[in-house]
Amino acid sequence: xxxxxxxxxxxxxxxxxxxxxxxxxxxxxxxxxxxxxxxxxxxxxxxxxxxxxxxxxxxxxxxxxxxxxxxxxxxxxxxxxxxxxxxxxxxxxxxxxxxxxxxxxxxxxxxxxxxxxxxxxxxxxxxxxxxxxxxxxxxxxxxxxxxxxxxxxxxxxxxxxxxxxxxxxxxxxxxxxxxxxxxxxxxxxxxxxxxxxxxxxxxxxxxxxxxxxxxxxxxxxxxxxxxxxxxxxxxxxxxxxxxxxxxxxxxxxxxxxxxxxxxxxxxxxxxxxxxxxxxxxxxxxxxxxxxxxxxxxxxxxxxxxxxxxxxxxxxxxxxxxxxxxxxxxxxxxxxxxxxxxxxxxxxxxxxxxxxxxxxxxxxxxxxxxxxxxxxxxxxxxxxxxxxxxxxxxxxxxxxxxxxxxxxxxxxxxxxxxxxxxxxxxxxxxxxxxxxxxxxxxxxxxxxxxxxxxxxxxxxxxxxxxxxxxxxxxxxxxxxxxxxxxxxxxxxxxxxxxxxxxxxxxxxxxxxxxxxxxxxxxxxxxxxxxxxxxxxxxxxxxxxxxxxxxxxxxxxxxxxxxxxxxxxxxxxxxxxxxxxxxxxxxxxxxxxxxxxxxxxxxxxxxxxxxxxxxxxxxxxxxxxxxxxxxxxxxxxxxxxxxxxxxxxxxxxxxxxxxxxxxxxxxxxxxxxxxxxxxxxxxxxxxxxxx
Length: 689
Prior knowledge:
- It is built from ten helices and 40 strands.
- The chain is an alpha+beta fold.
């Protein structure tokens, strides 16, 4: 068996990035099967995984070409116009299979009433809502279904700036959805799903704070939507329900701790340039962002904010677009760019595809989609619809690829991990690897979700979700990746993965958690910004409860008010545990006796979100190591390292490049005669000098 060497990272243009071996599509001549949620996937009755791809419509004069097509509550004109757009979109060749249908408040608000915006429900008239649900929204849903489109219905308007359990908006949503859930033409219609709200921003948490990131705030959000879910289920409605998150539907991490309960539950998110650390030509109005994060920034932000729910439930992106700002035809301002490089679009597709359970739509106006023609534009004279850097052109062709399926592949030479064969992951975190098949003609294809994964130590590195390495506890594991191509030939590569709570490596140690600092990986030297903070952030919360002590070893004695701090709330401005490190070479934290600095609240070591160093800034200090231990003399433990083998059992020997150089040799003589270098013997690293 040959183990593949470290990959040479190729910058692949979006035009050659084809979908991985993807879940089955509900498009392409198939009937519209009944769908349900099974674990983290949408599936049909035969258990086939289904991801949907679509567009959106809003039924109001303003959103139907700025009031130029119909007005004055003209139901027939509204239906005629919007049904025509569906026909024109499909006739243009768009391979769509779902529609997001906005029950716009134009119909349910009292005519002539003054409102401050779509988040103002003061003019809502329930009788009008019921009337136009029957007259407009249900007929449009049924028409879309007749054209082969599943329908996702969203409620009138958008959420106010702050919501709270039991407030007027909560009661409003309960009333709307209780009526919809009991509607005879919608209830248990297997082609109809419901998105329970649009863009919640902040919520009042169980602790009284208002925001969009802490666990108490997500605990309130769970109650907020669980009560709506329960009210709908009480009507006998078993339709699939899509649950929004916070921060304009960009943050979901608290649901990992306290998810919505029940069957047929998925989560609905939005994605725009600048969000999740993605590249933006201009900052988004809601969440800002700039160019510069590239693939890695986008991937890491998605991993923190979206993956906590995508790891256990299906995800639907119900708003997403991008284009250069000069076209003024998209909400998001960015470019398609390159997969694994700069830009938004190609990286969005790459990240969504490798998750394997993401349905998504293009939020471009239906009137523009209907005008699309599959005729390449002329460089220097591109339009919004044919510029490869604007969303319509690439998405049109991606949708066609999804509908066509993967097809027969070429001859695979080998498989490789784009991220290298030796990886370090922050304990408690999840790292999405990318596995590429390399073909004999030199081309590559992402086969991450089609490969199988096996870990030598699930206690250290769990691989139960394909393509995601979950660092459960400090330690090491050899992860074996196997891919069987369409010619029934198996290909294997192996990854040596280290899980560490306090790695002193770039990308995992953050010198600028607060204020801009510096970090030299080779020496371990750190300088914080003025009153700055440097250290480690644990997106999912690190569990340190199995240990007695956290030990900090410094390379000297330092001033600058140096302190070591630990936070069990995912918020730098919360109240942490603080211990003085001024003038000390060793700092010991008794993890089971930590109290917050201001309120003297006892900290729970099972959920640590931030740890690191604060200083007044400008003074360099050197970190030798930080580690966890149960030894009362504060020495490092060996039990969390790679296990020492007993006896002289046969082992295989590999280079770090992944090439097996010896097979089945006795451990005692495994490296005899090998040239100097670093080798993997069994599951241990061995240096020959």
